[in-house]
Specification:
Oligomer: single chain
CATH superfamily of the largest domain: PurM-like, N-terminal domain
Largest sheet: 7 strands, mixed
Strand content: 15-25%
């Protein structure tokens, strides 16, 4: 792969200590990636594997060659001997210490069958990449590092892999948990202008279109992208190498939910990822995670981490999505503040051969809009943990909830309806609640909508009391999906599927050609205003024009 430089030295240790005022001076530790070289390395690696000459291979991540050599040797209960003078380097004067700890990107460490070195190296050279013989496998169980023949390190491989110290840390529920979960919102005033609230939510960085980001990259490289960014709840790729088989990919996490209840919040992250996969018509299959947390050395931080891991594990088991890879990033805090715990979930789904992907875009004038939701306690909306509560009232409070059985049922209805070619759109309710989801479907399809709901359709099932319109419009209850369907046979078929799965399909409105979103006499906004808020917020924040 790439030549080794000084970038990334001590990157692993930098990520394993609390940040202080002196941390600014260590920013050079952050390594710089090269996506194009990464692509070349991936293709070269796949081709080299096809030769059959590679015995083992892994990428070099944290601690670079130190990690790669020790892990591979330990996994094989063998040893390695390498000479750093043979490592391709792009900077002069690098010591053995620097070479072993560099975290330069786009590098792989491969063990090649003896006698086939030239054959494998030729593959990497064809792709314009370095391929250097730097050492050999031994039966000593030790990793020996030499620098032009001089031994610089000699250590048992397992001592830095399997036999490394195990931390037993204290965990304690933070004091804030009881306070935020018992918050009472009954005294909060309702908005004077629901139009203004909707526009503020659409312009919030958590909700606003990320077009400015993904347009920095060519999403059509290799022409395998079937559902373009911004069109569906998950990306959809058609894989030529797999005879056109389709996969869906998404990443999700609401850090606010995890802050309020790490166990349930992590479950919701998995559920939302699965919901997004289901909204395009695919079946959730597997997870990779990126667990970002404050210091685990503080009992409150370790409690957040353990609870989130337990919650994620329970949800993954329920959805049948094993965690196949992931990473952990601790110490994400400054002397003043810590990040909200953020266990980001990446999920992949697979389409049945005869299923056409569904998008979030409203398509046809007169299509009926339904809200799919669990029956019973799952009906409750509420503003706990919502973007509305945070943005409008300045509070991050409440106790998020998840009915996994209800979630599974709603997703099953959606997938079955898409497979039967019943739905014209499907979009999950998450950040910003149902009204933001409807607005996003309007914008994606350049269609208006007329929404008519009764406040009694959203009674609190525990008390039978009406909920405020703010909770109905902007509450972020889980397990809800907005779909559109043609009136008549397809509508009836959808209702039959929902009944079979014990899920409620609540009629809430119609798609309209008129370029306005009209909701129950409370909201009436032209699509142009919605689009300016949604599409223009991030370009404006980046100092660029919001012109589309």
């Amino acid at each position: 792969g790439s030549a080794t430089g000084r970038d990334g030295i001590h990157g692993a240790t930098f990520a394993s200590v609390e940040l202080t005022e002196e941390s600014e001076a260590k920013r050079a530790n952050v390594q710089v990636g090269d996506p194009f070289t990464e692509k070349l390395l991936i293709e070269a690696t796949l081709e080299a594997l096809d030769t059959g000459g590679i015995v083992g291979i892994q990428d070099m991540g944290a601690a670079g060659l130190t990690c790669g050599t020790c892990e591979m040797a330990a996994k094989g209960s063998l040893g390695m001997e390498i000479d750093v003078q043979a490592v391709p380097r792009r900077e002069s004067g690098m010591t053995a210490y620097e070479t072993m700890l560099s975290e330069s990107q786009e590098r792989m460490l491969a063990v090649v069958e003896k006698g086939r070195e030239a054959e494998v190296a030729a593959v990497f050279h064809k792709w314009g990449l370095n391929a250097a013989y730097i050492g050999f496998v031994t039966d000593t169980g030790r990793v020996v590092v030499k620098d032009d023949g001089e031994v610089k390190a000699d250590i048992p491989a397992k001592s830095l892999a399997d036999d490394c110290p195990t931390y037993f840390l204290d965990a304690a529920e933070p004091d804030y948990i009881a306070r935020v979960q018992s918050a009472d919102f009954s005294a909060l005033a309702e908005p004077d202008d629901y139009n203004a609230v909707l526009l503020r939510l659409l312009a919030s960085p958590s909700i606003a279109s990320k077009r400015w980001v993904w347009e920095q990259y060519d999403t059509m490289v290799q022409t395998q992208t079937e559902v373009l960014p911004g069109r569906g709840d998950a990306a959809v790729l058609s894989l030529r190498e797999a005879n056109g088989a389709r996969i869906a990919v998404t990443t999700d996490c609401n850090p606010r939910f995890v802050y309020l209840d790490p166990f349930v919040g992590a479950q919701i992250a998995v559920a939302e990822a699965a919901r997004n996969i289901s909204c395009v018509g695919a079946i959730p299959k597997a997870v990779t995670d990126c667990l970002n947390f404050p210091s685990p050395e503080k009992p409150s931080g370790f409690w957040q981490f353990t609870q989130a891991v337990y919650g994620m594990a329970a949800a993954c088991e329920a959805f049948g999505t094993p965690v196949v890879s992931g990473n952990v990033s601790f110490y994400n805090e400054t002397p003043e503040n810590a990040i909200y715990p953020t266990p980001t979930v990446g999920m992949v789904g697979v389409f049945a051969p005869d299923v056409t992907p569904c998008t979030m875009a409203f398509q046809n004038d007169g299509d009926l809009i339904y809200l799919l939701r669990p029956v019973g306690s799952g009906n409750i909306t509420g503003i706990a943990g919502s973007e509305y509560l945070s943005l409008i009232h300045g509070q991050d409070a409440g106790k998020p909830t998840l009915d996994i059985a209800g979630e599974l049922a709603v997703q099953a209805v959606t997938r079955e309806a898409i497979a039967a070619n019943l739905l014209h759109s499907a979009h999950d309710c998450s950040d910003g609640g149902a009204l933001v989801a409807i607005a996003e479907s309007c914008l994606a399809g350049n269609r208006g909508a007329e929404v008519r709901v009764a406040i009694t359709d959203f009674d609190d099932p525990a008390t039978g009391k009406d909920q405020p319109w703010s909770a109905i419009l902007f509450g972020e209850a889980t397990s809800r999906i907005i779909v559109s369907v043609t009136e008549g046979d397809k509508q009836n078929a959808l209702l039959d599927i929902a009944e079979t799965h014990g899920t409620e399909a609540l009629f809430i409105g119609q798609v309209k050609k008129t370029e306005r979103l009209d909701v129950a006499g409370l909201v009436d906004v032209p699509l142009s205003a919605l689009r300016e808020a949604y599409e223009g917020a991030i370009p404006r924040a980046m100092g660029e024009s919001s012109d589309q």
